[in-house]
Amino acid sequence: MHTLMNNFLLYRQKILACLFCNVIFLLALSQCSMVCTENTDCLTSFCQKEPGDCTGDGICSCRPESCDDVYSPVCGCDGQTYANECSAYAAGISIDYEGICIPDNKCITNDDCTDTLQYCTKGPGDCEALGTCMPVPEACIEIYEPVCGCDLQDYSNECFAAAAGTSVLGSGTCDTIVCPVEDCGPPVPMPNYTCPDGTLGGPTGRCLKSENGSCGWDIRSCE
After folding, report:
1. Summary count for the chain: helices (H), strands (E)
2. Rounded distance, CA 155 to CA 197, Å?
3. Shortest CA distance to 122 belongs to which of 138, 137, 111, 106?
């Protein structure tokens, strides 16, 4: 008799647990497409908003269960960089804008500077680094101290490079720093990767001269 009662109670618990799971599933499913303002408005889904509208209303949407391993970075509304749109949604985060997250007044390209009279200045030799938006020089002294700009153009000095809106790749004319791409042979079979500051590490696509005069593909590290 006790065995039958125990079996009955166990069976009833399983039925109740199954019913509870089904109710939770149906509630979560019913919440998809509901209007929301934050994730807590959605039961198990997340509040997906239109890209660039992090403070507006969104729609409760189901999170992706898996994402393709494709690097197409986006900046989430939480200020973090995600490998792609799917990865952000899987984390329950809406998208602020395409590309890596850039702190205020920081930049990677000139387009990241909101003031048209500013350019993205970086330390010499690291054209892919995280830079700072600074005013473009209005005038430069005519002193010949040639530099090669990150745009692979020659400038009389660093000031003239800045006036053209470019940082400095290295001192000297570009022909003393940069090699023709054919001198470096086939491109390095190495993917780019995201550094902690959101910039890209790996091949830069530039063929540069070493101190001994040989040519080789430029590989950027995160350090």
Report:
1. 3, 15
2. 29
3. 106
List, for residues 93-125, the tens digit of each pLDDT value.
Answer: 999 998 888 888 889 899 989 888 999 999 999
This prediction has a pTM of 0.62
- Residue ranges making up the domain that contains 212: 106-220
CA dist., res. 95 & res. 54, Å (int): 7
11: amino acid identity, one letter: Y
DSSP at 183: G
pLDDT tens digits, 41-84: 998 789 999 999 999 999 999 999 999 988 888 999 998 989 99
Number of domains in the chain: 1
Measured CA to CA in angstroms, residue 3 lies from 6, 13, 15, 174 at distances of 5, 15, 18, 88
Encoded tokens for 81: 């960089």
- Does residue 197 fall inside a structural domain? yes
Q: What is d(CA 67, CA 57) in angstroms, rounded to the nearest whole number?
A: 25
Going along the chain, which residue ranges are E strands? 35-36, 46-48, 58-61, 74-76, 81-82, 95-98, 106-107, 118-121, 131-135, 147-149, 154-155, 168-171, 193-194, 200-209, 215-220
The answer to whether 175 touches 169, Cβ cutoff 8 Å, is no
Count the Cβ atoms, other than its own, within 10 Å of residue 215.
Answer: 16
